[in-house]
Amino acid sequence: MSAPGSLFCCRSLHSSGGHCAAPGSEHCRPLVDVASSCNHADFHLRHFHLDLQINFAQKQFSGWLVMDLSVVSPGAQVLLLDSHPSLMVRSVDFKDSTRPHDSPQEVPWSSDTFTEFGSTLRVALPELKAARDFQITIRYSTTDGPAVWWLDPELTCGQTRPLVFTQGHCVCNRSFFPCFDTPAVKSPYSATVRVPDGFTVLMSASRSMFCRDQREFRFWMDEPVPSYLVALVCGDLQHHDLGPRSRVWAEPSLLSCAVQKIGGSVEHWLSVAEELFGAYLWSRCDLVFLPPSFPIVAMENPCLTFIISSVLESSEVLLVDLVHEISHGWFGNAVTNASWEDMWLSEGLATYAQRRITKEVYGDAFTCLETVVRLDALHRQLRLVGDTSSVSRLQAPLERGVNPSSLMNLFTYEKGFCFVSYLCEVCGSQSEFDLFLKDYIAQFQFQSVVAQDLILCFLQHFPHLHSTTYRTDLQLDQWLSACGPPLYEPDLSAGGTLTQPVFDLLSLWSQHMTSDLCNLSPPSPHFTSDLCSWSTFQIVLFLDRLLDQAPLPQELMSHLSACYSAHFWKLNAEVQIRWLQLCVRCGFCSEMFRVRDFLHKHTSRMYTLPLYEELASGSLRSRGLEIFNQSQRSLHPSLRRSLQALLTNQSTSEGNNHSTVKTLHKGPPANHNEGLPANHNEGLPANHDEGPPANHDEGLPANHDGGQQANHDGGQQANHDGGQQANHDGGQQANHDGGQQANHDGGQQANHDGGQQANHDGGQQANHDGGQQANHDGGQQANHDGGQQANHDGGQQANHDGGQQANHDGGQKANHNGGPLANQNGGQSSENKTQNGKQIKQNGGQMQNPGATNHKAACYQLSPPSQA
């Protein structure tokens, strides 16, 4: 990684022989991504194609990757690709593209160790001249890697069919397919995916088709994208069209709820964004709601945004997350940070764009309230890490061997937002700054950039700021490299109509707190009435400020409970978890039955982990162990192991026996390392399946959260009876003994579906909407006892991504507890948005438009799937 002050551009990469030269700048440095081992500067990736078969019984993708490359550096005789120990490469073939009639020749290859989150695939090449075109074909299969998440039926919302999805941000897709796994490299791609009957495949692609006879889905992404934005999901999915370029996908049990919540909002948000930032550059803006096991809140995969179904509980949180992901269609997907050290270029700009959109649609007051909550979380996290922590820098340094997911935190989003707001302030005009952002997108669309590109573009647009004096006064270097709080925060006084009632109520409770609690009569009705008409973000701000003062006296907690507990329990999980955290932190046992009920109901990381952390660190640890032992079977194995390690470590430190945590697996738990929150991942991008199911995807982009990738759940699937898992019924997982995967035929890998890998010419266009969709049940997540994967041979559960657990915060898993933080009068509050999700009630509630007209859900006639 380069020094904090070094700024470079990757756009002249190939013409400059592997160096980046910022136009008109003295900065010129080699482009080195310390998180990647590839030699992308020696080659130009023109296109790649994936041809895959999905096998649910073996939990495996198998097939091949074809890369179309051109030589940039004459004499380059080795191709280095990012890979992962979980990829099983079988062969590598070379073909000279200038000699189409020659047969491919097999070439030597090897796999070298790189870091705990990846390896290097080294391919020997014949001597090639500059500009020579050639093709590499790699035949491989996946095993347990951090990018691919397999869910047994009981972990899905409908609980009838398994589901698989991929999550590539930041550097996980190297365990999905060998690649130049760096955001500096972009290319178009295509894919052919074969699946068993009854499953639908979606990808982050602009076009798609489905061939029913071959059960084959075909995809084309026509615009260049970085490797981390290649995404796939396969399961029992159905769709509903929201507008001419937007569609929502979900399991059948969730679809109607999602449609009613979103309505026509997506098309409205897109129209507003286009007025501000220019044309939407992706053909589709589709959304797919994933089960609570999804490791982050949302991911902006182009044309197809992935979003966790848990956010359907809160309309306000849902709309903010979706708008953030849609904003990535311009900032992050169209114009991408070339270096992970500049992630703020995607997340900070997307957060700014999100708030420009919500300001236009929902008004100043709502937008300022949401910003107060997020900036409050930023200051809370700053108090935890300290003003001198390098984590708080905009251009956070990335050391070799460190997973870039560790850079995803509130500073990436909120300090980045403050810097962009500062640039708007110094230019002197909101409308002129909107024009600048539109020009920035037009100049750099489909390219990867660094901070200096943005700054130079800004100074060229506002030439009166270009002088040396102005550049010094602007403190641009300090913004990028200095630790600590933002040098500027925008004026949020327009939110006073919503924030002041919160501060007034906090002041009343503060007076109540300083009174003689023993002789104090119960609070007056005035205390209880204020909250009834408040929005989610107002209540979140109120509870976050109370959490800052915790622990509170038991008498005060009794009065708070009498006033608010029943009301909070009628609201969404964003409110409930904060109230329960406050109860646990204060040791208020009267509400423990609600803690138990909440943890039995909500199975996502974003809600379970923060609450278990509170339980494990305080006097109620034994209650936490009891609840975990009762509910662990309903948790995704990766989350289960994380919580098991958390509770076990606490037991050890307090001298208790490890056996108090009952495990469902033999062998040690995987190292999950839950990390800093990190990917706001906002906004989901990615669209799938257009139209007559044919255009499968055209989607949105967005990584709110930066989308961080979670630790896949570790574990290698245990070889039951020493043998391979049989593939029954075309890849359907046989359900034996309550969900255990049995090994039929004594260890032979029975290939029952025999699926031949089809020729990947991209050929016939088929209707891509994917087959029959089974009707799930009401979306309640049942207690999936039997579907646990047993570790039969004592098989160690592997740590999917080297133990790095993407902490999803931008969106952000804000530190729920945040430590002892002072009451920040400016109205900032911690944001509790985390990863994963909770179960969704199918209440069909329409998403409310705070301060504006509601967008009613429109119903569109779905076209029958076209067939090829």
TrEMBL record:
Cofactor: Zn(2+)
Residues in Peptidase M1 leukotriene A4 hydrolase/aminopeptidase C-terminal domain copies: 497-647
Annotated positions binding Zn(2+): H324, H328, E347
Coiled-coil region(s): none
Cofactor binding, per record: Binds 1 zinc ion per subunit.
SUPFAM superfamilies, per database record: ARM repeat (SSF48371), Leukotriene A4 hydrolase N-terminal domain (SSF63737), Metalloproteases ('zincins'), catalytic domain (SSF55486)
Catalytic center residues: E325, Y413
PANTHER family: AMINOPEPTIDASE RNPEPL1, LEUKOTRIENE A-4 HYDROLASE
Stated name of the protein: Peptidase M1 leukotriene A4 hydrolase/aminopeptidase C-terminal domain-containing protein
Organism: Knipowitschia caucasica (Caucasian dwarf goby)
Lineage: Eukaryota, Metazoa, Chordata, Craniata, Vertebrata
